[in-house]
Amino acid sequence: MLGLPRPRAVEPGQAADDRPDVPGLVDRFGRVATDLRVSLTDRCNLRCTYCMPAEGIAPGPQSAVLTADEVVQLVRIGVERLGITAVRFTGGEPLLRPDLAEIIAATAALAPRPDIALTTNAIGLAERVDALAAAGLDRVNISLDSLDPTVYAEITRRPLLTRALEGVAAARAAGIGVKINTVLVPGVNDDEAADLVEWALEGGVELRFIEQMPLGGDRSWQRDIVVTAAQTRARLAERLTLRPHAAPRAGAPAERFDVFDPSGARLGTIGIIASVTEPFCGDCVRTRLTADGAVRDCLFAHTETPLRELLRAGATDDELADRWRAAMWVKRAGHGIDGPAFAQPQRPMSAIGG
Ligand code: SAM
Ligand code: SF4
After folding, report:
1. Which residue out of 42, 45, 51 has the highest number of ligand 1 atoms within 8 Å of its CB and is therefore the one to mutate?
2. Which residue range forms the structural domain that includes residue 348?
3. Angle of the 68-81 helix axis to the 100-108 helix axis, nearest 10
C-alpha cells in the first residue's frame, strides 16, 4: 500500500504546473483516486435511449482497443504503483469481450489484490458468470430499467428482458455481490420505481437509481429529462417508507436508504445516485481508462491522456505511471453540469465507460 491518505503536500487549488512528487493519483484539490474504471469496449448489444442512438455509435478501429495483456499491464501499474484498490470493468458492454475471464483472473493475481467488479447489461451473463466468479469477480452491477418486456424493449431497443433476468438470477446463484442499476426515464419507466425496488429487495439485491446524465450518444439531454433524486424519493414514498441508512456514506456516490413496506416491515436498502442534482465531485476517488487506452480524470472531462502509444512503444512502468499521475493532477473540482459554461464531452458514456 502507498500509505493513504497522504497528499499533505497538496494545497487545494494548486496550479497545474506545481505537481508535487508524491505517489498515487493525487489532484490539485487533495483528492486521491483509488477506484479504477476500465472500459473494455465501446461496442454494445443494446441501444439504451439515454446512452446510444438507435443506429449505434461507429466504434473505433479494433486495432486501437487494448488487448487483454495491455489492459492488465495498465491495471497492474495502477495497483502496484498508484494506489488503486478497486477495479471495475465496464464499457460499452464488457461481456462482448471473449477474454473477460482472462482479464479478471490476471487482475485477481495482482498484489495487493484489488476488489474486482463488473458493470453489465447481463445479456449472456447467465452462461458466463460461474467462470467469471471462478476467475475472481467479486461483484456485479446489472443495469435493468424495467420488469415489463415492452418497456424494457422501448428503453433498450432490444426485446431481451428475459435474458437480462436470467443473468440476474445466475449472478445471485453464483454467490457474488449483485446490485441493480436503474435509470428512470420520465413517462417511460418512472411509474415502475417502487415495483423495481420491491422486486430487487425480495431477491435480496440492492438497487440504485442513477440520475440521467448528459452523456448520451445523441446529445439530446436536457435538465427536464432527469428524474431527480428528490422526484425518485417522492415516487417511492407513495408506496414505501424510506429512512436514511445508518452506515456513514463515506464519500460513496449513492445516498442509501432503508426501505419499509406499509406494514412497517424492513425490505432492505436502496441507493440513489444524484450525479446531476446533488453532485459528489468533492469526494470523487475515480480514475478511468478508455477501451483505447486513454486516462480520463472524469466522465465529463474534455481532455484525456493517451497511454496506448507509449505502451506499444515499450515505455517503462515508471513512464506510464508518471503520465497517469500527471493526467489526474489536473482533474477539475467538479463537473459543472449546473454551470452556464457546461458542455457535454465529445465522447459518449458507452465510449468512456460508465
Ligand atoms: N453496458 C453496461 C451496462 O449497461 O451496465 C456497462 C456500461 S453502461 C454505460 C454503465 C451504466 O451507465 C449503466 O448502468 C447505464 O444505465 C448507465 N448509463 C448510461 N448512460 C447513462 C446516462 N446518460 N446517464 C446515467 N447513467 C447512464
Ligand atoms: Fe449498452 Fe450499457 Fe449503454 Fe445500454 S447503458 S446502450 S447496455 S453501454
Report:
1. 51
2. 26-352
3. 20
Greater confidence, 279 or 251?
A: 279
Residue 8 lies in a domain: no
* pLDDT for the residue 1: 38
pLDDT band at 340 (very low <50, low <70, confident <90, very high): low
Q: Which residues, including other chains, have CB under 8 Å from residue 153's CB and lie 6 or more apart?
A: 159, 160, 161
CATH number for the domain including 208?
Answer: 3.20.20.70
Chain-centroid distance of CA 299 in Å reads: 9
Reduced to 3 states (helix: H, G, I; strand: E, B; else coil), residue 314 is: coil
Q: How far apart are CA 222 and CA 14, in angstroms?
A: 33
**Least confident segment among 3-7, 69-73, 149-153, 255-259:** 3-7
Q: How close is the Cα of 47 to the center of ligand 2, in Å?
A: 6
The CA 233 to ligand 2 mean position distance, Å, reads: 25
Residue whose C-alpha cell is 437509481: 209
User: Is the minimum distance from the CB of 167 to ligand 2 under 6 angstroms?
Assistant: no
Instruction: Find the 354 Cα to ligand 1 centroid distance in Å.
Output: 5
Q: Which amino acid residue places its CA nearest to atom 4 of ligand 2?
A: 48
Count of domains forming the chain: 1
| For residues 186-208, average pLDDT | 97
Confirm whether 13 is domain-assigned: no
Average pLDDT over residues 66-84: 98
Classify 93 in phi/psi space as left (phi over 0), alpha (psi -120 to 50) or beta: beta
Q: Is the CB of 182 under 6 A from ligand 2?
A: no
Residue 180's DSSP bridge partners are 142, 207
DSSP letter for 19, please.
-
Mean pLDDT value across residues 60-74: 94
In a domain, residue 7? The reply is no
